[in-house]
Every structure is written in C-alpha cells, then in structure tokens.
Amino acid sequence: MLSEVAQTVRVNTRQLIREAVETGGCDFAEQIASRIPMTTISKLLGVPEQDRDYLLALTRTALSTDGEDVEDVDEVDSEMARNEILMYFMDIVEERRESPGDDVISMLVGSSIDGVPLSDEDVVLNCYSLIIGGDETSRLTMIDCVHTLADQPEQWRRLKHGEAGIDTAVDEVLRWASPTMHFGRSAVRETELHGVRLRPGEIVTLWHASGNRDERTFDRPGEFDLGRTPNKHMAFGYGPHFCVGSYLARWRSPNCSWPCGLHHRIRADR
Q: pLDDT tens digits for 185-199?
C-alpha cells in the first residue's frame, strides 16, 4: 500500500524541484522540505489541502525547533499548539464517523482490536503521532541532507556518479542528521545501566544523536561517508518503538537512483 504513497511523493518532489530549477533557485527548507512531508501525511489522513499550512505551523510551534521566532515560543505556546492539533483531529474523526472516506482516519475509525472498536481518543492520538513524527523528522533530514552535500562536494560527486550507493547514502544521511535527537523511557524494573542503578519509574533519556556517533560502533563517526557500511544507526529507534514510517522514509523506485526523486542539481556553491 505504501508503494503507491511513495510514488506520489516522488512525483510531487520532482515537480517541486523542477519549479525551483526553472526559476533559478529557491529556499529549499521553506519551499520544498516543508511541503513534502505535510502533503504526504495530509493525503494519507485525508486532511483538506487548505488546512495543511495551518497544521505545519502548529507542528513547528509544538516542537519549537525552527523559524526566526523560535526563541519567542515558550512551553505554554507549545502545549497550546499540541492541544490545537488534537482538537483539529477530533473534529475530523467525528466527520469520518458520519461520512467515511478512503483515508487512514476512516480506516482507523472502522478498525477494532480483539473485537473492541478503537475509541476517538485512540484514533486522534494515532493521527497526532503521524503528524508530529512524520513531518518534523522528514523535513529536518531533507534540509540537513542538502546542506551537508552542498558543504561536502566530494560526497556529492560520489553520489552523483554512483560511487556511493543510494541505500548506504540514505542511511548515512539519517545517521548524520539524527532528526529525533532524544527519547525518554521509563524503567519498568530495577536494573543497572553502565554502572548506574535505575529504579522502577525513573526516566532514562536515550540520545540518538550521541548513539549515532558512538566510536565503539562506528568507524570515523565524525566523518560524513555516503558509502558507510555497516551502518547500525538509531534514527528510527529500536525494538517495539521502531519507526512505523521507516519503509516510506527509505523507499525508492526500482527504476530510480534518487530517494523520493531528489534531483541531480545540487549547487555546491550555494
């Protein structure tokens, strides 16, 4: 099912890049990277096109990670944005119960686990996770990828001429960008981790950015190497919390050597 979604992503991305090339340039972060993930997720969830900029603004405020006014966003603003996202999807869920469509929300509304239908809260929180998890991570990874390749023309040359495979390149970009910086987990039983005694209920923070540069696992961890293999990065998490969107994030057409239609015109001098 995701193959069709991925193909749509590729078509949309090619169109955005084509427009940028024809006009002679663009703000990649604002005009391309910010539009691809939200468009994809919105189509999956059946979010009307006119609401997508609104949701994008809410996710930025909810996570407070970019923008010129990020320093003016406090925790109250972030919490209000998160609540706005939840309320928005609560309205959508009510609409889908009245009039189902062929989108993911309609599918969730009609789903059950062990014979028990999903509650409105279950559906809304799944939508929230897809929006928060899928938009921010994909957007920041794309931005980091183009920025790093522009700064390291030799790596771009290797990729462009097929000296570095697209599969290893994608994993290295994910390792390098580490779009999910950290995650908190609660200890469920008393245990010891690297000499530190943990009691049940205590929170442990996993820093993906640090793990992805662990010299015990990676040779030359501070070097951006598109041909790196093996590459056991933690960008998608691990175990039962492994990213549900990892397939779509890594997908590429068997007839295309570029992830999601990434165009071959990256200007190293910009």
A: 899 999 998 899 999
